[in-house]
Structure formats: C-alpha cells, structure tokens
Amino acid sequence: MKAVDNTISGPSMGTAAASSKLSHVRTREATIRRAISALLGGLNTIGLLVLVLIFAMPFFWMLSTSLKTLSETMVFPPQWIPVDPVWENYSKAWNTGPFLNYFTNSVIIAVGILILQMMTIIPAAYAFARYKFVGSGFLFGIVMVTLMIPAQLIFLPVYLELSAFKLLNTHLGLILPFASSAFGIFLLRQAFMQISDELIEAARLDQAAEWKVIVQIMVPLVKPVLVTFALFSFIAHWNDYFWPLVMTTNETARTLPLGIAKIREVEGVATWNILMAGNVILVVPILIVFFLSQRQIIKAFVYNGVK
Length: 307
Fold this sequence. Notes:
The chain has helices at residues 2-66, 70-73, 88-94, 99-130, 136-145, 151-164, 171-175, 182-193, 197-205, 210-221, 223-238, 242-247, 256-267, 272-306. By secondary structure, the protein is mainly α. Helix 3 (88-94) crosses helix 14, helix 4 runs antiparallel to helix 11 and helix 11 (223-238) packs antiparallel against helix 14 (272-306). The relative contact order is 0.11. The mean pLDDT is 83.
C-alpha cells in the first residue's frame, strides 16, 4: 500500500511544484512587463516635455524680450525673466505707426478670404466627391497642380490684372487672389468621400435639394475638418507678408506684418524689445483662435484616423 501511495503522491507533488514554478514565472513576466510599460511611459512623457520646450521656448523668449529694457536685451548670458518688466514697450510698439489700422486691415482681409474660401471650396469639394462627370479627374488634377505653384511665380500677372482693375491698395485686391484654396478643396473632398452614401440617398428620397444636402448633412458631419482648414487659412493670411507688400504702396490696406517690419525702420535694428513687443501683438490673436478651435482640430484628426 505504501508503494502505491508513493506512486500516487510522487506525480501529485511534481505537478504542484511545476504549477508553483509556472506561477512564479508568470508573476515575474508580469512584473517585467509592468516595469517596461512604466519605463516607456516615462520616456514618452520626457519626450513630450522636450517637444513642448522646443516649441514653447521661442514664444517664451519673445515674451521675455518684449518686457526687457534695451540694455537687458544685450546682456550675455541672457536673462530669461526680466528684473523689472517694462510694459511700456507695447505702447511704444503700438505707437510706431497706425497699428489700429493695421490690425483692422488684417482682420478684414483674413476673415474676408476665409468667407470666400468657404463659399467656393465646399461646393467644389462636394462636386468632386459625389459627382462623376466627364473630365472630373482631369479637373481635380489641375486643382492639385496649383498646390505646387508658389505665389511668387504668379504675382506679376496677378499684380498687372489687379492694377488694370484699379484694385491696388484695396482690401478687395488682397482678398480676391485667395478666393479659393486647392488645399481646402482636397482636404474637404477627402472628408466628403468618407460620408456614407445612404445618408445622401435618404435625403434625396425626402426630396431635399442639393444645397440642403450640403448645408444640413455634409457640412455638419465634416465640421472638425472645416474648422481645421479655417485655422490654417486664417494663420496663413494673418501672417502673410509678401502679398500685402507687393499689392500696397501706402498705409490704406497694409496689415500687421508690414507694421511690425516698420518698427525696425522707425526704431532702428537694435531695439529688439520694441520689435518683440510688436510680434507679441501679432501672435496673440492667432493663439486665441487656436485655443478656441483646438477641440475641433483634435476631432478632425480622430475622425480621419477612425475612418
């Protein structure tokens, strides 16, 4: 009987030992996985912090310099935080020219361009996405080709045409050349193509007109994409220096970037504190627009990624 008991208990004890060893190995593997996960999470956080510092450093330096005296801007090593902030730098920058006029012109031109672009890119993108007609691929290819043509290459014929219509030194002359956007058509076309055909067919069965399909169905569904494009367009034309410089010869329609450039002419090259104060005035509206629309931008990327 003892021999039988030993025979039975031997394999049982071996199985228990093997099970205990396997459990120990699994616990050790789980601990290693948690440690690796924590390490990767820490490295990811450090990497993100480094990226934030890289992108935030120029803005912090600009803000810091705008609050310094002229002598503090020349100190080496530089002082990151001014000892006594000089808020008068902003009033000096503002008073170097008709900055209220520059600011108003920038708002009118950037918003005017954006409104016209929305009126043109939405129906164009809808047509390219939802209609198959003769030459649609060829025409869309031409739209894409315009993305590769820099503005500096075509400014002379555009300048001559606007001059012939007496649109130089006017808001309209700075708005009309950008009444549409090839990038906007492309971006919106891709978003429209991801919308289910059943939604459009259901609307048409309800005898909805095409403009109702666009306004009430298509546009709300691609709102994040529209907001993202609107932000890109606003920033691009708010910061545009070349086109207002070419198309204006007086202060009537000049914008903030040209006003900031004049600070160097009026105050001299060495007054970096005044120049940085002007740049802060230029950047603040863009930051406000970005923070107001950042949720829609995130939705746009998530929307495209899920689709």
